Each structure stands twice: as C-alpha cells, then as structure tokens.
TrEMBL record:
It comes from Candidatus Brocadia sinica JPN1. PROSITE patterns: HELICASE_ATP_BIND_1, HELICASE_CTER, HRDC. NCBIfam families: recQ, recQ_fam. The lineage of its organism: Bacteria, Pseudomonadati, Planctomycetota, Candidatus Brocadiia, Candidatus Brocadiales. Residues 515-595 form the HRDC domain. This is DNA helicase RecQ. One of its GO terms (molecular function) is helicase activity. The keyword Zinc applies.
Length: 714
C-alpha cells in the first residue's frame, strides 16, 4: 500500500481513515465512507483499484468532471478511462475493447449508463473487483441533490452479489446515511465517519457595512488566488462580477439565468485558471473539483448552516489554509424571512424558519464558529480555542457600554417602539432625514446624542443588545425594535451593560502571515504549471497541486531525488515534469542568488520523510548481507520483480545501492544511451530499442540510478 501511495500518488502517509478503509475494501467488504470535502475520498478507491487484478468501476453523477478525473489519474500513470454521453459510439467501442483486454484499472461511468441492460451484460463478462459510488447521497430524497437515476443502483447487489461496494459521501445527516445503506442493500457494511472539522479553513463573520469595499480590501495582494463569492440573487452576481472586472480582477458570473453553455464555459475558465474569481449563486459548486480555492466569500447570508458548510467546504480541498468569510446583516436576514413568508406550505415554512434562525444564531453568537458548526453535525471540538476563527483569534474586548446602551434604549422608547434599527441610529446621530423631521423626532432628547460613534459602531451595539436580550426585532415586513423587560434596570441605571469594544475600522483579517514559503518562486511555478496545463489541455491541478508548488518553494529541490520528496510528486510526474521544474527552480535560484549551500540546508530539513516500510527495509537488510537478488526473492518468498522494485525505491531514496552485480557494466551503458535518446519518461521505447536481451527490471534499475545522477561513467 505504501509503495503504491508513493509511486503513483507521491504521498508518504495516509489521511485519517484512508488506510483502514482501503484495508477493509481489499478484504472484499462493503464500506460506507462519510468524509468532508477534502477528506481524501478518491484515494480510498483509487489505491485499492491498483491492487486488484480486475477493474474498479467508479459511479459518479458528474459527467463534466470525469475527463478531468481521468486525466488526473493518467498523469499519475494509472490506467483509467471513462464512458459517458460525450463520446461517440466508435470511441466507446475502443474503450470497451481495452476494458475487455483488462488494460484498465479504473472506469468512471454515470449511473444511467451503468444500469442499461446491455452494459450490465458487458460488465458481467469483465472481472469487476469493486463498485465505488461517489456522491452516494444522490440516492436519497432527503439529501440536497437527489437524482432518480441513482435509485437504480440497487440493481448492483442483485446482479453482482459478490462484488463489494464502497459508498462515499460528504453529506452527514443520519437519514441520508441510512437511505444510502438501505437502497444499495449494503450487507454488513463497515461505516467510516471522518471528522467534519476542516482544520485548514479559517472562519470569519464580518458585519456587512460596505461589503464591496470590504471585499476589495481583502483581495488586495491576492490577485492570483482563486476564490468563489456567493450571492443570493442573479442581479447581485451580475453587478458584483462587473464591478470586480472594472477594478481589474478577473471575475466571471455563474447563475441559473445564464445559458448552459455560458455556465460551463465560465466554470471551465475558473478551473483552468484563466480567471481567478467566480461570483455565483448557490447553483455553482456541486462537482467543483478544484483543490486550490483559497477563499469562499458569502456576500449575502446563506439560508442554512448545512448549505453554508457545503459552500465553505469548497475552499481548501488541498489542505492548505483558506478563508471563509461571511458578511452578516439584519437586512439580509429579513429579506430571507420575507421570502419564507411567501411560502404556502406550512411545513416547508417551518423548516425554512428554523434553518434561518440557526444560521442567524451562528453569526451573532460569540462562541467559536468551528465549535458551533461541528455541534451542528453532532461532533464535539476538544480544544477550547480553535485558533482559526474570528471569535477565537480576536477575543473581543469589552467596555462599560452602559451609556451607549441607555441612549439606544431610551431612543427606542421615545419613538414608541415603532421603528427599525437604522432609523433609531439616524436619530442618535442627528440625521436631517426627511422622515425624522416629519415625525418631529428631531425634537426628542436623544436626537443627536450619539455622535461619538460611527453608524456601523452603533449598529454593532444594537445587534449586541438584541443578542443580550435587551431588545428584540419584531414585525413581518418592516422589523421594528421593541424593548424587552430586561432593559428596565439599565434605563434606571441600576445595571451596567458591557459591550464589545467597537472596531476602529473595517477590516477583514488576512491569515497568510507566518507561512514561510518563497512567494516569488511559487508564482513562477504557478505560471509554468499553467503553461504545461494549457499545452496538455488539462486543468492546472492535474499537473501539480498548490501543496506541491508550495513545498517546492520552501525546499528548492535541486535534483530529481529532492523533487521526489515533495508531496504529490509520484514517479510519473517526476519523469514527465521533473526536468522543466528543476530548471525553473535552478534559474530562479541563480537569478536571486540563492546559494546551493542554503538550498542544501533547506533540503536536508525536508519534512517529507520517505516511509521506510518494513518490506523494503527487509530487502535492504538482506542486500547488505550480500545476498543476490535471486536469493533475496527466494528467502522472502517474493517475486523477483518485487525485489527489484524495492531496490529501485532504495536507490531513489539515496540508499547507495550498487547495481553492478545485477546489471553488467556494458549493459548499463547501453541502457543509459537509450534513455538519453528517448528521455527518462517511459520504459517502453527503451525496451523496444534494446530488445529481449534486456529485461524491464534491468532497465528500471539503471533509470533509477540515472535519476539520482549516479549513472555509470564511460
Ligand atoms: P474529497 O473527494 O474527499 O473531497 P479528494 O479525494 O479530492 O477529497 O482529496 C482532497 C485532496 O487531498 C486532494 O488534493 C488529494 O490529492 C489530497 N490527498 C488525498 N489523500 C492524500 C494523502 N494521503 N496525502 C496527501 N494528500 C492527499
Ligand atoms: Zn474558533
């Protein structure tokens, strides 16, 4: 498992639960996997697929994504393919043929095609080892994305009773979970539930004072980062994306009012990083596999915590720090309430109200955001301080706000509890607003008594008084402030009120500081990645993830050996892009006078330790005892090719293995020459050139030597 993890995926360790899930799956059991977005679900079926001797079928509703997913696998040297309606009959035929020849390890397919009788018949002739059902919540009417065609998947257990099923989802509600297990007829299945805590996401809620300005402020210095901005209405989406474009940002709109083509195109341009920002209604996101979304901004209040969690969840799938910022205002809350009131179905209305209330509580509360989110999914946060939300990071300082509170409360009293928040604040600030003059509220005692604070500061005080239970908002269409029993003592000066000290200015905290990597180099590598991606017609993340680029910008790898230690760089990518990447890094180092000794220092500190899996280690021990490879294979009861692959790995890890006793010097030189002619990337051309006198094993060993620059000198 570890060998494959490193070789094909370039990772050195598993994410939580992955290893157990894979083991269970290799043991032919049905499993149910519940993991948040970014939890690493795909690896759970992709890795076992490589260990099975037949094919793994991945069922996914997202046809648009299949090609990218398959490209991603191919880029890692994994034989994968997809069949969907975008292909011609001829193309499908070719794919079917290579499936029949057992040349494919992973097949992606949509459920409606899978359950066609003839396709099922075709499958029955193959050696199917696993059905992985991605987005399996689509089977449940209770989920947020019910797809009737998923119901048909119940056929799988009937037709393939022996083939294990792995159902995966990021939807955490128990009803949905039960639905999935029942409908798929999973027998005696093991349930794996990962924590829904997304540690790399930083949650912030900001009062919505001047949201456009707040967004511009946030975006400054992060022009190159990808982000999603969610709005409630199409109109806001259009307005906001146009404004951002005018301000020099590459932003595109996405909403249900656009044609299907325009939507696909905008989404595609976002994924390929031709633009950085998508401004969207919630219609956007399902099936966005882009791992490096660095921020998700909610310009308007979301309608439910569940939705908010899913939407913010699209940030930081790659595990790197990402921001989730929500702009909260009462006005938004009332807007949603207004729409809820229009609903005719009483049950639906109740549910919508409850969801809105939960959402508002979340925004107003002074409890750690993460704690509340997790509690919503029935999970408890152990640490007292999550260190990655606004509540935990910016503990609010309080001051004796009794006088400010008295001004607000008495103003509410004097206007007869008949007006809303902004009106009351206008009076406090002595506004010449026509309505105030008409109502003669410019003559009351509190008129103009609140010039010491800004409008947004007064708004914050009012919000807090509501939260503390001194005031409440009442009324359907036009919410007005009402006094609560509790404020009597404050007005009589027999009780003090401590309010949160007002913020000096509008700010949205940036959380980039402290992350120590070379941003200039990162940018250069990002540009290189984009070029490579465009050449191959794949999204940039298929080439390298941000995580990999970031590590390169910390350790400045100088050799293929060093590059191989970077997370996400498996053998295939090493061979395909190793050279260009190393050249870019070397050029950069030269231009910026980064000295080799500095680099060496950094490289030796690489946190990416190679897993010394015991089996490779055992081979090494025997090798040190001067056993021949045949003896080692015999002693360990393993195939010769396995022992060779251990040695290959050890060579690449820099273990100083000599291959002279395995491959004759003469042969080594021939193999080297062949590689120099056709590049290190593929074995086949070299094998073809050299013929049957040379085995793949010999060729691989020599290549490994060449990759770490220890080839035989002539
Ligand atoms: P999900 O489908 O659960 O949202 P993905 O399968 O897309 O998650 O994985 C999320 C990210 O984590 C991807 O960028 C993936 O390459 C990366 N990843 C998955 N497993 C590992 C691992 N063991 N080590 C490092 N990165 C991993
Ligand atoms: Zn917190």
């Amino acid at each position: 498992m570890y060998t494959i993890l490193q070789k094909y995926f370039g990772y050195t360790s598993f994410y939580p639960l992955q290893e157990d899930i894979i083991k269970e799956s290799l043991g032919q059991r049905d499993v149910f996997v519940l993991m948040p977005t970014g939890g690493g679900k795909s690896l759970c079926y992709q890795l076992p697929a490589l260990l099975f001797d037949g094919v793994t079928i991945v069922i996914s509703p997202l046809i648009a994504l299949m090609k990218d997913q398959v490209d991603g696998l191919l880029a890692n040297g994994i034989p994968a393919t997809f069949i969907n309606s975008s292909l011609s009959y001829g193309e499908i035929d070719i794919k079917k043929r290579s499936l029949s020849n057992n040349e494919v390890k992973i097949l992606y397919i949509a459920p409606e095609r899978l359950v066609m009788p003839e396709f099922l018949q075709f499958l029955q002739r193959l050696k199917v080892c696993l059905f992985a059902i991605d987005e399996s919540h689509c089977i449940s009417e209770w989920g947020h994305d019910f797809r009737p065609e998923y119901r048909q998947l119940k056929l799988l257990k009937e037709r393939f009773p022996k083939v294990p099923i792995m159902a995966l989802t990021a939807t955490a509600t128990p009803v949905v979970q039960e639905d999935i297990i029942t409908h798929l007829k999973l027998s005696d299945c093991r349930i794996f539930k990962a924590s829904f805590n997304r540690k790399n996401l930083h949650y912030q809620i900001k009062p919505k004072d001047n949201p456009y300005y707040q967004i511009l402020h946030y975006l400054k210095g992060r022009q190159k980062d990808s982000g999603i901005i969610y709005c409630q209405s199409r109109k806001t989406v259009e307005r906001l994306s146009t404004s951002l474009q005018k301000d020099g940002y590459r932003a595109l709109p996405y909403h249900a009012g656009l044609t299907a083509e325009a939507r696909t195109e905008n989404q595609e341009r976002f994924i390929r990083e031709d633009v950085e920002i998508i401004v969207a209604t919630i219609a956007f996101g399902m099936g966005i596999n882009k791992p490096n979304v660095r921020y998700v901004i909610h310009y308007d209040l979301p309608k439910s915590i569940e939705g908010y969690y899913q939407e913010t969840g699209r940030a930081g799938r790659d595990g790197l720090k990402s921001d989730c910022i929500l702009f909260f205002s009462y006005a938004d809350m009332f807007k949603i309430e207004y729409f809820i009131n229009q609903k005719t179905d009483e049950g639906e209305r109740q549910v919508a109200y409850r969801q809105l209330r939960e959402m508002a509580n979340y925004c107003e509360s002074n409890v750690c955001r993460r704690r509340l989110l997790l509690a919503y999914f029935g999970e408890k946060l152990d640490e007292p301080n999550c260190r990655s939300c606004d509540v935990c990071l910016e503990p609010k300082e309080r001051f004796d706000g009794t006088i400010a509170a008295q001004k607000i409360l008495s103003c509410v009293y004097r206007v007869g509890e008949r007006f809303g928040i902004n009106y009351v604040i206008d009076i406090l600030q002595g506004s010449k607003n026509q309505k105030i003059v008409q109502n003669q509220h410019n003559t009351i005692k509190t008129y103009g008594a609140g010039k010491e604070y800004s409008k947004s500061q007064w708004q914050a005080f009012v919000r807090e008084l509501i939260q503390l239970g001194y005031l409440r908002l009442d009324g359907d269409k036009y919410p007005v402030l009402k006094l609560q029993e509790k404020c009597r003592n404050v007005l009589l000066s027999s009780e003090k009120v401590f309010l949160i000290k007002p913020e000096e200015q509008i700010s949205v905290q940036k959380i980039d500081a402290g992350e120590d990597y070379d941003r200039l180099l990162f940018e250069r590598l990002r540009t290189l990645r984009k070029t490579l991606a465009d050449q191959e017609g794949v999204p940039p993340y298929v080439i390298f993830h941000d995580t990999s680029l970031k590590e390169m910008s910390i350790y400045y790898p100088q050799s293929l050996l060093g590059l191989r230690k970077i997370s996400g760089v498996g053998d295939q990518k090493l061979m395909k892009y190793g050279k260009v990447v190393l050249k870019e890094i070397a050029d950069y180092c030269e231009q910026h006078h980064i000295m080799p000794n500095q680099i060496a220092h950094k490289c030796s500190e690489s946190p990416v330790k190679q897993p010394k899996t015991s089996t490779v280690q055992m081979t090494l021990e025997l090798y040190k005892q001067h056993l021949t490879i045949h003896e080692i294979a015999q002693k360990r009861n393993l195939a010769l090719s396995t022992i060779i692959s251990h040695l290959e790995k050890l060579i690449l890890d820099g273990a100083g293995i000599s291959i002279d006793s395995i491959v004759a010097t003469e042969k080594q030189l021939h193999i080297q020459r062949a590689f120099k002619e056709s590049g290190l990337e593929f074995l086949n051309p070299v094998k073809e050139k050299l013929g049957n006198d040379y085995s793949y094993e010999e060729i691989r060993l020599v290549r490994a030597k060449m990759m770490c620059g220890c080839e035989k000198k002539q």
